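Quarterly update from the structural biology core.
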Amino acid sequence: MEAARGEYIWFVDHDDDWFPDSATRLARTAGETGADIVSARAEYRHDPDRPGRVIDGVDERRTVARDEYLRMMLAGRVHGFLWSKLIRRAVFGVAPFPSLTSQSDFVGLLRAVGAATTVAVIPDVVYRYLRRPGSLTRVRSPRLSNLEAARDAMHDVIAATKAPVDPGLVDYFDAWFYAGAAAFTPIRWNAPAAVRDDGIRRARAASAHLSIGALLRRNRGTAATIAAVRYAPALYRVGLPLALRLKDGLRDARAGRRGRGVAVAYVGIHDPDYPRNARLRAPLADGRARVVPAGKSRSPGARGAVADLAAIWRASRGARAIVVSEFGFKLVPGAWCIARLRRVPLVVDGFVGLAETHIDDWGTARRRSARGIAYRSIDALAATVADAYLIDTDLRAAAVVARHRRRTAANTFAIPVGAPAWAVSTPLPETDTTLRVLYYGNYIPLHGLPLVVDAVAEARLRRPVSLTLIGGGDGRTPIERAVADRGLGPITTFEDPVPETALRDRIAAHDVVLGVFGSSAKARSVLANKLWQGLACGRAVITQDSPALDELRPLVGDQLIATVPGDAGSLADALVAVDPARRYDDRSALLEEYADDRTNRLVEWILQARS
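Predicted structure, tokenized:
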């Protein structure tokens, strides 16, 4: 801490794990809220190769006053782990951590909370803690006096801050944090008999004034522990080890059943090779689950609907969960009914909503028309009934949570589209004076091709430029006319859509990959496939500025170039400024790690899910 020079401090253990964007998310929250402390969540693992459980923090995103956070700590809703907190250096004061072999983190956090004004709580899982045999809190002879010191520190902070706290809540803290732990911990870790006896003695003395009835109203487990320690200490000393061995055996048996024997129904698949579909299915089938796919029927009307329901019913037999793929919104009502009959959770991939596709992208329906209202209703229903909802960016995930009351950040997953395996850094093309610019995708308003044409027309007046446009659709003809009208025909090449595996060679032959420049709400919130692919291939990527880019900026730096939305001149300036001879670091592995971490959180949720 003496060496730290930053405004905030984050403590991590070298033998644990965290995600590439963890510090970014914590710091972003601190900047947005101005809070002295950002309190997140973590995953606790018994085995590095098996999914663990989410611990610490709460399933909500809000900023609370110091006194409210103290009450949350008293109630056990948040704990003293430092690695799930980002803390302003100024609130630590001098020597906040006492010289204890354990619990010093809890005391130091308490003192920081006492000096804080506000705390931002977020539901994000930012850390993965692995329980190891040699951990300070897992030794055979735990120092119970450390627990007592931490309890006393809580009382001291409450007194010093004069926080308005219910005395019953303080009693509950004394029960679960100190009395219950003093009795439980030595037995749990098979401490010597003298330590176990000391734990029972401390627990009985600390709980003598506590009301079992009051504890029962707050937590039955804590009340049962205190009652057993007070009235049947010998039975507690003998029965607890047996109960713990049974619990550990059941946990290991459940973990052993995960893997190839776990089935997940993946339904409504329109194209198994579609990048989004492959991205989500691959980690499920990678040694942890057996994916049972169900394709989407091509039959029209009622016949197709019946066929789809039958396919979902067959695929979901014995499944742990039902996942509706990215183009399967119309299947959600039927899939929901089947999920309830099967008593399994329903996961919906909201990557391609009906309303944004038909209203925003294609313009085939107006927002307030009958069809537009129907599309929006289907989308809303899918987000409401899904037990877990998938989207592609943090920005869009936050919007979904805000729009639908049933959604929380804990069951709304931002899964990046990522880059496929073929997208790796490639050598730069032979350098000459011409800047080679590449666009690929459908000719839809989302991509803002008219603005691209205007920008290239302006940029070519200031430097040699060539433009390649790959794609198809009804919108191609107007762009061909616009290219001709602006005199760009000699420098523009139009190509029909190419197989995805051929895109690497196309990207390798160009200096710049263009992103999204449309004016719709979706255009301002997505991170398109080509952004990930262009970045992974080592090319400069230019796209319009958006808060959604905040996810990628820490990973790729100035390789990602943002322009002013709706401003062709800004895009032209960016094209003129690009240095085609610049070689960027190979960031493909980092991008893949980021996408994999996000996807694996969903996989672990599914593997542990219940009805």
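The longest helix spans residues 233-257.
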